[in-house]
Amino acid sequence: MSEVDGRDRLGDGGARDALALALSEARRELPPATELARIETELAARIGGGDGGGGGDGHSSSLPRALLSRPLLAAAAIALIAGGAALMLRDRGEAGSALVGAAAERAASSRVVAPSETEPSAPRSAVDPPRQSAAPISGASASAGPARSPGPPPRAMPRREPGPDPTLATTTASDVAASAPPEITQATAPSELADEVALVRAARAAIGEDPARALSIAERHRAQFPEGMLVEERETLAVEALVALARHDEARRRAARFFTRWPASPYQRRIESALARR
Amino acid sequence: VTPDVVRAAALPPSLAALFRDHAAYVHRAARHLGAPQGELDDVVQEVFLVAHRRIAEFEGRASPRTWLYGICLRVVANARRRAHRHREQPVARVPDTIAEPELERSADAARARSALEAALTELDDTKRAVFVLVDIEEIAIEEVARIVEAPTKTVYSRLYAARARVIEHMRSALAVPAGEAP
């Protein structure tokens, strides 16, 4: 068999190189955003609907009944008011919506720092660590040797996980505490909220294939719900869409406004990684 | 307009943050750990459902990702056991969804990549877990030891064994007879 020749050409060293290559490929293969968005939507449905999927451990009844945590509830209340106004105006047609949008824009811009002053460059460290591992599998090549002599620690990985994220940790714990109270029911959900949600979902669904459409849906949301409950999500989608459309300056300006308005938003990372993607 | 629409809309903020920052990595890990074919999405969801229920445990942890990987490992193991019981399903191979970045890579890389996929399926679960966590997910040995609940020494020896096995597999998988090279 000529396989022997092949083997000769591809000795251990060759196999190690191939492994190094394969591993660096494997690390780069993250699922597309659209797929994650789908998973996220289904997950939200499962949590909201009290599980439903298999594999649960029987504690699903302890899940929060709905997405309406306290902070969100506050936002919902605001949305109710703002949404009510928007609804009235919407009934009068396009001009009304545009008016709301313009008003929101004015309100927003009055608090906004000039884009150039807020460089969204600061902390984008933890977003995408493996991709930056410049010397990927030094592990593999260096390690195949020690394989037979399990003495020295194989300094396997050149880099560790990005450090802990205290911000995330604290947000997480406290938010969850806040989302626990069972007295909140979905009865609070107004139909405007459902309209909002429908728009944001549509925008999110479109973003991979048709960012222009996603952007126009986001703009529609902005017109109808300038201060809606999902305003952060909408602005994030808008930035992502702008980046996808290569409208980078606009994306940056919009992101800068976002960072000014919501300095501690959980969406910041997503925006930062969108901006980095160009 | 039903409340269902509303409920399906968004995750609680804390979980949403976890999901956005880590879901891609959990997804990748679940695939390499051998989540059964067609169940990858479910597995990822399940990981975050469990995380959601146990979020109190997470407080004070050094790294949310490490914590999630630990959950992922168990969820995948359960799914594999179930799949094994119900049918002889092969585990997920490189899925089509990964096609996009593949366009840019060389034929060599692609071959090496699929050889690695195949090699992974031949590892036993404990070695596979260590290999995936250390060499693909780049988790420090000490953390992996915590995740798999084994002494670091054991983790090292599993890692060495796994690497030797993978390299051996890749060597024979990639040994193309002369003249038949693609």
Proportion of β residues of chain A? under 5%
Q: Name the shape of chain B in a single word.
A: globular
Q: In whole angstroms, how far apart are the ends of chain B?
A: 56 Å
The overall pLDDT average of chain A reads 60
Kindly name the structural category of chain A.
Answer: mainly alpha
**DSSP helical segment count of chain A:** 12
End-to-end distance of chain A, in Å? 49 Å
Helix content of chain A: 55-70%
Number of H- or I-type helical stretches of chain B = 10
Shape of chain A: elongated
**Coarse structural class of chain B:** mainly alpha
Low-confidence stretches of chain B: 1-8, 92-104, 177-182
Proportion of residues in helical segments of chain B:
over 70%
Average of per-residue pLDDT values of chain B: 81
Number of separate strands of chain A: 0
Per DSSP E runs of 2 or more residues, the count of β-strands of chain B stands at 0
The largest pleated sheet of chain B is described as: none
Q: In this structure, how is the largest beta sheet of chain A organized?
A: none
List the secondary-structure elements of chain A in sequence, H or E.
Answer: HHHHHHHHHHHH
Account of the 3D structure:
The complex is a heterodimer of chains A (278) and B (182). Chain A is an all-alpha fold. Chain A is 60% helix and 0% strand. In chain A, α10 runs parallel beside α12. Chain A starts with a helix and ends with a helix. The N terminus of chain A is likely disordered. With 182 residues, chain B is mainly alpha-helical. Chain B is 71% helix and 0% strand. Chain B is built from ten helices and no strands. In chain B, α3 crosses α5. The longest helix of chain B is centred in the middle third of the chain and has 23 residues. Chain B starts with a helix and ends in an 8-residue tail after the last helix. The N terminus and C terminus of chain B are likely disordered. The chains are: A mainly alpha (278), B mainly alpha (182).
